[in-house]
């Protein structure tokens, strides 16, 4: 019987799977252009290749698990930051800050790498669903602010965040990127008429 390094078999398996996911994550972060082999992942985690196959049948299976593991972590961090923000304007700016902080932590590079190197439609579909889910609070905030085309506006906000993300990755200067992004988005957000006001009595015509 194999040696169990945890109080229960389930905990033992969970710990080993966690070690393999962390190893794959480290290898992809170090070399974003190449998917590591299961043997390389096992070596990094201190496990034999045969042991790795007890958890993942293929590299694609491992990548799919890594997507399932990584994207919800990003989502939870965004949700926490946005929930603490004040009002719809604040929620959009909080979305910007949380994303750029995740980029500074290296999470965006991993997400981009997974989108590029993971070949299966299943992984690509998970990435698309994740992208759509990320924009839900931004879309809600823009609707609350009365944006005339909230779907397009949300995509444009996301495009600005992506551009700022590249700057963070290139320079490592989070605060500079955040200041520049806020300077672009803040006037637009302040110029939007809140939906509650927009639905009220129209202002009288000026003579």
UniProtKB/TrEMBL annotation:
Keywords: DNA-binding. It holds the Pfam family TetR_N. Residues 14-74 form the HTH tetR-type domain. This is TetR family transcriptional regulator. The lineage of its organism: Bacteria, Bacillati, Actinomycetota, Actinomycetes, Micrococcales. It comes from Actinotalea fermentans. Residues 37-56 bind DNA. Coiled coil: none annotated. InterPro entries: Homeodomain-like_sf, HTH-type_TetR-like_transc_reg, HTH_TetR. It comes from the Bacteria. One of its GO terms (molecular function) is DNA-binding transcription factor activity.
């Amino acid at each position: 019987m194999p040696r169990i390094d945890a109080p229960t078999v389930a905990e033992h398996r969970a710990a080993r799977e966690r070690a393999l996911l962390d190893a794959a994550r480290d290898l992809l972060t170090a070399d974003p252009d190449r998917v590591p082999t299961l043997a390389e992942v096992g070596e990094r985690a201190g496990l034999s290749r045969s042991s790795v196959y007890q958890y993942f049948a293929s590299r694609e299976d491992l990548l799919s698990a890594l997507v399932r593991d990584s994207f919800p972590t990003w989502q939870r961090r965004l949700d926490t930051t946005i929930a603490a923000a004040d009002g719809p304007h604040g929620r959009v700016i909080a979305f910007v800050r949380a994303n750029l902080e995740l980029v500074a932590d290296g999470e965006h590079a991993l997400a981009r790498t997974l989108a590029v190197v993971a070949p299966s439609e299943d992984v690509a579909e998970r990435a698309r669903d994740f992208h759509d889910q990320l924009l839900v609070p931004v879309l809600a905030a823009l609707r609350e602010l009365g944006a005339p085309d909230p779907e397009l506006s949300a995509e444009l906000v996301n495009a600005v965040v992506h551009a700022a993300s590249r700057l963070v990755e290139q320079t490592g200067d989070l605060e500079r990127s955040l200041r520049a992004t806020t300077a672009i988005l803040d006037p637009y957000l302040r110029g939007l008429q809140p939906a509650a006001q927009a639905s009220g009595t129209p202002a009288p015509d000026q003579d």
